[in-house]
Amino acid sequence: MLKIANHYVSKVAFSLLFVEILILIGAFYAGSAIRFFDGDDFLLPRLDHFLMSACVFTAAIVFSMSALGMYQLNFSEGLRNPFFLQLVPSFAMAFGILTLVFYVAPELYFGRGILLLVFAISAAGILMARAIFFTSSKFRFLESRIIFLGNGALAKECGDLALHSNSYHKYDVAGYVAMPEEESRVAANSVLAMEPGMSLVALAQKYNVREIVVSVQNRRGGTFPIRELLECKLFGIKVTDAATFFERETCQIRVESLQPSWLVFGGGFDQSFMRTFMKRGFDLIVSIIILLLALPVMLFTAVCIKLEDGGALIYSQERVGKGGRSFKVLKFRSMGTDAEKGGKPQWAAQNDPRVTRVGGIIRKLRVDELPQLWNVFKGEMSFVGPRPERPYFVEQLSADIPYYNVRHSIKPGITGWAQVRYGYGASVEDAVQKLQYDLYYVKNNSLFLDLLVLIDTLKVVLFGSGR
Fold this sequence. Notes:
The chain contains 16 helices and twelve strands.
């Protein structure tokens, strides 16, 4: 895994992105050369902004492919992955983006003939590149060979994650190292036998291991082999904590395996002036752009809500924001006027019977969230951040879930890492899952991660997934 601005990015996905950028730029030049071929000479069009046009074309394609989830790879499907079916709508979206760009900046326009050729060459190049990547993913030498220090419940959970992950990484689990006073939860034949006097580094070298994941729940006492782990690290073997392993592989921070010291001494949690300044600028710029683009949709939504039942268009509700301070969040009303006639707050759920017909549509498309742009302008919310919850649920969840209040160290958001990665939260168990994504965002928040959330949000809006 690579780390870009504290966010874990797959080397495979990053390599594929890099290769496809080169393919797209090359396709642009190749298409132009073919279009303007004249006898024995290639007469490239004399555009003052030819390189800029190539970059705009490449950016439009990459953005569209990202928005449709084409870089969220699933190698378990192999060549059965329907990336051709995703490529067609990606190119259609890119064509729409380029049409808008050419309208605003006509000097970048390079002609329909070139555009058709470039799209055809790009499609062929991308399909070939992906076929090669998915085929090469089957090669055994690309697998990372690891062992887990521990054989209890935490080690089993780590091992299951390594063996059954469907996405970027393939692991060859050599086995588990048993620890004294730990009840074994793994298969007996997967526990590695250590000869008398054998060190941990000798065991790792014997099985040609690249990484040791420390998955011991209790590290107190004199049985924890800290000196041997240091020796492994000095011999070039990577030593990874279980919390870091979960963070890296799932883009979550697991609360069950979390040690307070890991939060205190680990990296991340950037709350510097520069980060705050950039975050506020990002919020205002994105909110203004979204408001201008979505204004017709908001007006149409207001008319539909009024026509359906004649009730209020906007409703406000108390939510908990940064530092535990309460504020009034604004939304388009998507439920009936008597949604909580009993007076007791209720969890919102998938297919909630309280949701109106118009409400069901605007919730699925996230249009109901658009009035929260006013909360962003007021500085009560960010565009990207943890979902703000109601005080009633915050009090309940803070008592039941460790580290829940950590999410209140930054401003809540209209959209966020948990919203695009997880569905509706209708229970304490769902709240735990969403918290684990929120903790990841709070720890690793950056402009880069905000941009990724925005792209994923577009995918949610287009396909109605997540929340």
